[in-house]
Design brief:
The chain is of the alpha+beta class. The chain contains three helices and five strands, in the order E-E-H-H-H-E-E-E.
């Protein structure tokens, strides 16, 4: 399953409408979560092209990372970048 991670201004990547560390989020991040849900409900997976076709703003897409996990149990909810190293903050995801 694919997960879409959104980059907040503090270099955190997260799933969901708001960053779990600083609470950052916008109406556009909430819309992205909803579009991902609709794509999955229709049997699809999120991709940059599918999200763009659904009307997600290109500036938001530029800050997204789409990752695919072979086992849903290994997907994480959020991570942040520290000197080039990612830090896992927990399991879960959108």
């Amino acid at each position: 399953m694919q997960h879409v991670y959104i980059r907040c201004p503090n270099a955190h990547y997260f799933t969901g409408a708001r960053c779990p560390w600083d609470g950052w989020g916008t109406p556009a991040t909430a819309e992205l979560v909803e579009v991902c849900r609709r794509l999955r409900d229709a049997g699809g997976e999120p991709s940059t092209s599918a999200l763009a076709e659904a009307g997600i703003d290109v500036q938001l897409l530029d800050s997204c990372l789409i990752a695919e996990f072979g086992d849903e149990g290994f997907a994480f909810e959020a991570f942040w970048i520290l000197g080039g190293a990612g830090v896992d903050a927990g399991r879960g995801g959108t």
